[in-house]
Amino acid sequence: MKDTSAENASTVLGGAKILLRQAVAAVLDAAHPDLTYPLTVVGIVGEVNDALASCDRSTMLALKNKLVIYNELGCPLNGDQGEGSSSSPPCPGCPGQDPL
Predict the structure, then answer these.
(1) Enclosing domain of residue 12
(2) Do residues 30 and 48 lie in contact, with contact meaning Cβ atoms separated by under 8 Å?
(3) What is the pLDDT confidence band of residue 10, given thresholds at 50, 70 and 90?
(4) Is the pLDDT of residue 89 over 80?
(5) pLDDT at residue 85, rounded to an integer
(6) What ranges in 32-80 are assigned the alpha helix state H?
(7) Is residue 87 domain-resident?
(8) How far, in Å, CA of 84 to CA of 79, rounded?
(9) Torsions phi, psi of 39, nearest 5?
(10) Taking the CA atoms of the chain, what radius of gyration do you get in angstroms?
(11) For 38-80, how does the pLDDT look when each residue is reduced to its tens digit (9 = 90+)?
């Protein structure tokens, strides 16, 4: 089977896949009752749908970049106030951590 991951990364379809990975994380964060996320689930879905409907890879990647920033704001569930601002470990359930 031919590996087309590098080939797909530079296409509109590849851009959509890259965006959707971050969008899933964003929806999960926004839906969590104990987290304050900059967007609502409805807002995320709307922005992602608009980016996908544009069929423009640059638009998709711009939204992906915005979601990456939001997704890396930190996890207040264990006292983490953002990337690099705390010595506390990642949230429980993160890779390398015990689940809740």
Answers:
(1) 5-78
(2) no
(3) confident
(4) no
(5) 41
(6) 41-54, 57-71
(7) no
(8) 12
(9) -125, 155
(10) 15
(11) 999 999 999 999 999 999 999 999 999 999 999 998 777 666 5
What pLDDT score was predicted for residue 25?
96
Hunting for tokens 């296409």 — which residue is that? 11
Cβ–Cβ under 8 Å, residues 72 and 83: yes
CA-to-CA dists, residue 93 to 2, 9, 14, 75, 84, angstroms: 34, 29, 28, 12, 19
- Letter for the amino acid at 29? D
d(CA 74, CA 34): 13
The answer to whether residue 88 sits within a structural domain is no
pLDDT of residue 79: 63
Q: Is residue 96 part of a domain?
A: no
pTM as predicted: 0.70
In whole angstroms, give the CA distance from residue 16 to residue 1.
22
Domain assignment present for 49: yes
Q: How many domains does the chain have?
A: 1
